[in-house]
Write a structure and sequence with these properties.
The complex is a heterodimer of chains A (171) and B (142). With 171 residues, chain A is α+β, with helices and mostly antiparallel strands. Chain A has 4 helices and 6 strands, in the order ααββββααββ. Chain A has one domain. In chain A, the strands form 3 sheets. In chain A, strands 1-4 form a two-stranded antiparallel ribbon. In chain A, strands 2-3 form a two-stranded antiparallel sheet. A two-stranded antiparallel ribbon of chain A has the order 5-6. In chain A, helix 1 runs antiparallel to helix 4. Chain B has 142 residues and is an alpha+beta fold. Chain B contains 2 helices and 5 strands; from the N terminus they run H-E-E-E-H-E-E. Chain B has a 5-stranded mixed β-sheet, with helices on one face. Classes of the chains: A alpha+beta (171), B alpha+beta (142). At the A-B interface, helix 4 of A face strand 2, strand 3, strand 4 and strand 5 of B.
């Protein structure tokens, strides 16, 4: 027979659940932001540069400094035998998250910033994709993540008991 | 035509408020071809994104639209923030006008907006304009 946990563990259990939900929400948010659906994508560097931290995120990373995005706008010039910049739209954008999302503790780190480190992040705000996710889907994401998962439903009879179809209120 | 009406309700509310504040401002909507106005002109790009179209309570699905509206406000660069502030205020007034108790629901979609974010100012190097971004969530029910 499985050992039952005493009621004395309730605070520890609740705190653990809150912390798990807190981290799950941060992980999901960073993951969702780094998709083509929620970030404008040209080379994929912006979508790959979402980060979660206890410090405010600075947008300072230049695409040209980070492989594989550094070479996307480059082409080989045979006459000079060197790589040169081209304005041609890249054939292959690449989304590859650059930052691992660390584990946070909601008590010690009650504020977590999620931001983008790409130097040109400001330009991306012109696209409605980011706002669409943050103002649209984030709300249901928070509700889903922090909501209780009810394995069953409880109904309380609130109407007449004389009928088998008496009215019930869902709790 | 309720999807059309839901979009129209918000676009009209914002357009009317902006026109009342400054009738020289060009409004640009989704999927409309336009030439980027000159650097001394003011214009607003309004985007309405739908995230949900129905709600399934019990029985048949009901039309219930929700999503996000974003208005990018473009004003002349290096000319202070007062123009951006007044246009942002007009946009915000237009958005919140649908929540007012005396709002006339011409399109019969009960439009509502929730908390409004912005105006977030953006000064981008190679852009000819100074930009402010205002966004909010909306709902419309038939």
């Amino acid at each position: 027979m499985a050992k039952k946990r005493g009621i004395g563990q309730i605070v520890t259990d609740l705190e653990r659940k809150l912390n798990d939900d807190y981290n799950a929400l941060i992980q999901i948010t960073v993951g969702e932001l780094g998709t083509e659906q929620n970030s404008p994508v040209d080379t994929g560097f912006f979508a790959s540069s979402w980060k979660a931290s206890t410090q405010k995120i600075r947008a300072q990373d230049k695409r040209e400094d980070f492989a594989p995005w550094s070479s996307i706008y480059k082409t080989r010039d045979p006459s000079r035998n060197q790589w040169v910049h081209t304005d041609k739209k890249p054939a292959q954008s690449r989304i590859k998250p650059r930052f691992e999302v660390p584990e946070f503790n909601y008590k010690r780190q009650p504020t977590v910033y999620i931001g983008n480190t790409a130097e040109y992040a400001g330009y991306a705000l012109e696209s409605p994709k980011v706002a669409n996710f943050i103002q649209g889907e984030m709300r249901s994401l928070v509700q889903q993540t922090f909501g209780d998962k009810r394995p069953g439903r409880i109904f309380a009879r609130t109407g007449s008991s004389s009928s088998v179809f008496g009215s019930y209120t869902k709790l | 035509m309720t999807l059309v009406n839901a979009r129209a309700a918000f676009e009209k509310a914002v357009t009317d408020a902006v026109a009342a504040a400054d009738n020289t401002v060009l409004m640009v909507y989704d999927n409309v071809r336009y030439t980027t106005p000159g650097k001394t002109k003011k214009y607003i790009l309004m985007t309405v994104n739908f995230n949900r179209s129905t709600i399934q309570n019990q029985g048949a699905a009901q039309d219930y639209y929700s999503g996000v509206i974003q208005c990018n406000i473009y004003v002349p660069k290096s000319a202070g923030t007062s123009v951006l502030s007044s246009l942002s205020e007009a946009v915000i007034d237009g958005l919140t006008s649908v929540n007012a108790s005396d709002y006339t629901d011409t399109f019969s979609v009960a439009p509502r907006v929730s908390d409004i974010s912005g105006p977030t100012p953006l000064e981008l190097e190679d852009r000819s304009h100074f930009i402010g971004i205002v966004s909010c969530q909306f709902t419309a029910v038939v």
